[in-house]
Design a protein that fits this description.
With 196 residues, this protein is mainly alpha-helical. Helix content is 63%, strand content 4%.
Length: 196
């Protein structure tokens, strides 16, 4: 289970500053924000690990988040499709497909990752760090899918559905332009407070 107070990761910053370290918040903080308790916190670490970090840190245990991203993409698709099917019983297939496309896409996922502050938790190599990787839409969207994949592997479909439900609400609002970090924080805080 996530919890306790462990030191934050450090990552090198920008070009020409490879000796300078910047603190990256601990994954346990992100798990609390998401309202998720990981049985194996290494899954969340993997979800936040970009391949550039492993390239710069050979011998680091674990792997990059690409496989979790692949899994999370499918889990997200199934959960969102199920939610749309149930919430819109009178909508034809074409309309449901448009609704899903508005929610399950790189831009919406990157927006959600930004709202959650996931960029602050990423483990990036020096090159990505120096070129603003924490703010790149593609990296953020991939990380969001990887986090969903990690939650699915760690807690099963029900845990992933619970996370995606909060995310879906936020993404649905984001499509309409109404979500803000405080709105999402309130939603995740209510989930976190309900945990035993």
């Amino acid at each position: 289970r996530c919890g306790g107070s462990t030191p934050p990761h450090t990552a090198a910053t920008g070009p020409g500053r490879t000796g300078t370290k910047v603190a990256v918040p601990n994954e346990a903080d992100l798990a609390r924000l998401l309202g998720v308790r990981f049985r194996d916190p290494k899954r969340l670490t993997e979800a936040l690990t970009h391949r550039s970090y492993l390239h710069d840190h050979p011998g680091t245990p674990g792997e990059a988040n690409e496989r979790l991203e692949f899994l999370g993409d499918s889990v997200l698709g199934v959960v969102i499709t199920d939610a749309l099917y149930r919430r819109h019983p009178d909508s034809p297939e074409g309309q449901l497909a448009k609704l899903r496309a508005a929610v399950v896409n790189a831009r919406a996922l990157a927006d959600l990752a930004r709202a959650l502050g996931i960029g602050e938790f990423l483990l990036l190599g020096r090159g990505e760090e120096g070129t603003g990787g924490r703010h790149k839409a593609s990296i953020l969207a991939d990380a969001m899918e990887a986090v969903i994949g990690a939650v699915y592997l760690d807690g099963g479909l029900e845990a992933a559905q619970a996370l995606v439900q909060v995310s879906y609400t936020a993404l649905d609002l984001k499509v309409q332009g109404f979500v803000s970090r405080p709105t999402l924080a309130r939603a995740t805080r209510s989930r976190r407070d309900a945990l035993p």
